[in-house]
Amino acid sequence: MTKTGRYTKRVWLQVTPEMYQFVALMADRQRSSVNDVIRQAIREYLDVQEDLLGSRSRLGRTVISRLETMQFQLLRQLRHLSKLLLAAMIILMTERGQDSRQVISRISNLASHPELDKILEPKG
Fold it and tell me: Cα(121)–Cα(9) distance, rounded to whole angstroms?
């Protein structure tokens, strides 16, 4: 791709004599121009950067997805543990001679108090 009409922007840069010598040698071996070798090097560098950015973006989406899955699982386990705790309380209180309907009613009344939500909210 040596057509200059395709490339509309100029870049001026300074390189060491060794760098220029290496680029010129590569151009000779590839039977192309120094500009073509430099363009190819820039193109390959940008391709790698694009791949890195894409992989970081995919990684971020993967991490977020995994965190959301873990949050869902933790909430499900918390609901299950809450049910087990309530069942254990009902059993314990009925074994102590209290009426199970009264125990369930007391637990329901307690759970409906807004003060309980304040106690359970994380402080931040």
Answer: 58
